[in-house]
Amino acid sequence: MILPIxxxxxxxxxxIGKDIDKDYPNLEELIENMTDTMHNAKGVGLAAPQVGKSxxxxxxxxxxFEENEELEEDERAFLxxxxxxxxxxxxxxxxxxxxxxxxxxxxIPNINEDIFREEQIDIEYMDENFQxxxxxxxxxxxxxxxxxxxxxxxxxxxxxxxxxKKRLLKKKLANISKGNIDVAYRMKFPLNKK
Length: 194
Description:
The strands form two sheets. A five-stranded antiparallel beta sheet has the order 2-3-4-5-6, with helices on both faces. It has one domain (5-188): Peptide Deformylase (Alpha-Beta Complex). Strand 5 (108-126) and strand 6 form a beta hairpin. The protein is built from four helices and seven strands; from the N terminus they run βαββαβββααβ. It starts with a strand and ends in a 6-residue tail after the last strand. Helix content is 27%, strand content 31%. It is an alpha+beta fold.
């Protein structure tokens, strides 16, 4: 089932998510619905807060980047298969120097800005079967993970912008909160009075 994506301005996007365990109600269904929702919106990641759940869970499917010819061939090959469920994830270490890349967000449609993030991260997480994994991610895979991880920490990519950039985007962000925006997927707007 395709769920509505929570829009900028909703308080759930600012909450720090809670850890979950195997007994979290309807977890398998939630993961399936989040996957359908992400693919329907043509996203590469979706965090539980974006569908109204303040828990430490997100999904990633970076396969659309396989077609990005600006990326090195080996990175495209890695991103083709970089997909999964990340439960109670942790970033153990960030390293490698910051680099900029234009990011967007399904909860903040039609806004893309260059965001600086560390190039390499060491992570730990559980998959949908609650098996523990430890990995090192680089480049775009690290960035996607960091973006989704920020969501479960109550942080949005716009928080990382300069004060001037935030001021310039203020009206656009207010319009998103009010639902004054055209998107090709279902959204839940916090300030829409309709």
